[in-house]
Amino acid sequence: MLTKTKTTYLVIGYGNTLRHDDGAGYKVAEAVADWGIEGVRSLPLHQLTPDLAEAIAHAKIVIFVDAVAETPEAQPTIKVERLEPSSRETFTGHCADPRSLLAFAKILYGTLPIAYRILIPAFDFSFGEMFSPITEAGISIALSKIKELIRFSEIERRE
Known about the structure:
The protein is α/β, with parallel strands linked by helices. About 35% of the residues lie in helices and about 25% in strands.
């Protein structure tokens, strides 16, 4: 079992910042870090790796944020999903899936935080650092959703 103090919230935003919309999760994590809220830790990363299991195990609530490829005809919407651990997901080289990281944290550290995944619609994965208008709007919505999750969890904790 862990002996360190738990982080209340851990936001993990990931993606390639040199591939236009793919960097949306990273951008969200940077913005959350700028909030400077006590008890909220934010990690902007290029990819998920197995060593994140320790940070996940120290959190009470983890929010993963990533870009998801959408077709131009699709109605772009932000997706917020509750996640459960899964041993079916695998590590590919140094990359990992959020569900496998949750399972890894439970196996290694005996603890499992509440976890969510926020998926931001993305269209442009070519080289560059700018976001498409829909992804830019999705980043703002994702930040609002994170604020809602934090606020809702704080209300539940007080009751």
